[in-house]
Design brief:
Length: about 180
């Protein structure tokens, strides 16, 4: 399958493209994704979008760059948000191609780790990610009202990372210094 991958900054998304992204997100996450926006808790910094030969949007991933605190030391994280592929093009390499695009983007940049949460660990392990166990601390945001509801603190089983810098990951406390993807 021939794909075109575009990097799009959030503030450059047109109304038409927003509609296509929203349709893909709702189709991919029908029971949990808000129907009135193209982000779950917060806007990503930018997105990689995959288009097929007919220029139809068939894959999406949001990315956010920020510092987190891992056991008392800052780490630079590129967070993967809402990776999804249209239902009729799944299992054709689109998701892996998007992850490869993230890998290429990360080379030579000041990024220690790529971080994500998933309930499909096998897919990400095939793409070089590894599960980690950390007690996470984050700002809780109510999805419907978009109001801060306190601080969450618990071990999250779905946490995965990919080392792209020179820093080593360690178990222990991971403070998001912000919201949970």
């Amino acid at each position: 399958m021939t794909l075109k991958i575009d990097k799009v900054f959030e503030y450059d998304i047109s109304n038409e493209l927003e509609t296509y992204i929203q349709e893909l997100l709702i189709d991919s996450f029908p029971d949990i994704y808000p129907k009135d926006r193209i982000y779950f808790k917060q806007l990503p910094h930018f997105r990689f979008l995959a288009f097929n030969q007919e220029n139809q949007l068939i894959g999406h991933v949001g990315l956010e760059y920020r510092v987190m605190n891992l056991n008392g030391r800052p780490v630079r994280i590129l967070g993967v948000i809402d990776l999804c592929v249209s239902q009729n093009t799944r299992s054709q390499g689109v998701g892996s191609t998007l992850l490869l695009e993230i890998d290429k983007f990360s080379v030579g940049r000041n990024i220690d780790f790529i971080l994500l949460f998933t309930d499909n660990m096998n897919f990400y392990m095939r793409n070089g990610y590894k599960p980690v166990k950390n007690k996470c601390k984050w700002m809780k945001i109510d999805n419907e009202t978009q109001i801060t509801n306190g601080i969450g603190f618990e071990e999250i089983d779905e946490l995965m990372i990919k080392k792209v810098g020179n820093t080593d990951w360690s178990e222990g406390d991971l403070d998001f210094l912000g919201y949970f993807y």
